[in-house]
């Protein structure tokens, strides 16, 4: 009986440590995303530094006449684009608002999914996600991002 109690106690202890570790890891991913949202909303071009140079940035666009286009950039290309576009985004108040945020653990990082609402074009991108993983220094960075855009405003 003592062996069963010790085994059960050890199992419960391991489960508590595991759940605590998972909760702390999810909290770090949530904090990372909150920082991303804050920097983006304040048009701070340092948001680009959250991306790995090797990240894969996927954008999908559907036009009203039915044409569909996909674009893929590296993180390095995206960083340069963000630096150039941020002043224009600020003038146009081109903010994204995020809702229904969910975080799931992946092998080395996290997948953060959300509904992304475009303030400027009045539409919701329900396919939005980013994948974050620790870099060599142990800091989270974006290694993949996917968004869906449209050319015309629904406003």
What would you say this structure looks like, in words?
The protein is of the alpha+beta class and 155 residues long. The chain has one domain: Nuclear Transport Factor 2, Chain: A. Helices cover 37% and strands 37% of the residues. The chain is built from two helices and seven strands; from the N terminus they run H-E-E-H-E-E-E-E-E. The chain has helices at 2-41, 75-91; strands at residues 51-62, 68-74, 96-105, 110-118, 123-125, 129-134, 140-149. Strands 1, 2, 3, 4, 5, 6 and 7 form a seven-stranded mixed beta sheet that branches. Strand 3 and strand 4 (110-118) form a beta hairpin. It is globular. It starts with a helix and ends in a 6-residue tail after the last strand. Mean pLDDT is 86; it is low at 4-24.
Secondary structure blueprint with pairings:
Layout: H1 2-41, E1 51-62, E2 68-74, H2 75-91, E3 96-105, E4 110-118, E5 123-125, E6 129-134, E7 140-149
Parallel strand pairs: 1-7
Antiparallel strand pairs: 1-2, 3-4, 4-5, 4-6, 6-7
Q: Which spans have pLDDT < 50 for at least 5 consecutive residues?
A: 4-24
Instruction: Work out the helix count.
Output: 2
CATH class: Alpha Beta
Query: Count the strands?
Result: 7
CATH topology group: Nuclear Transport Factor 2, Chain: A
- What coarse outline follows from CA principal-axis ratios? globular
**Span between N and C termini?**
69 Å
What fraction strand?
A: 35-45%
Order of helices and strands: HEEHEEEEE
Q: What is the mean predicted local confidence, pLDDT?
A: 86
What is the structural class? alpha+beta
How many structural domains can be distinguished in the coordinates? 1
Radius of gyration: 20 Å
Portion of residues within helices: 25-40%
Named at the architecture level, the CATH assignment is Roll
**Mind summarizing the main beta sheet?**
7 strands, mixed
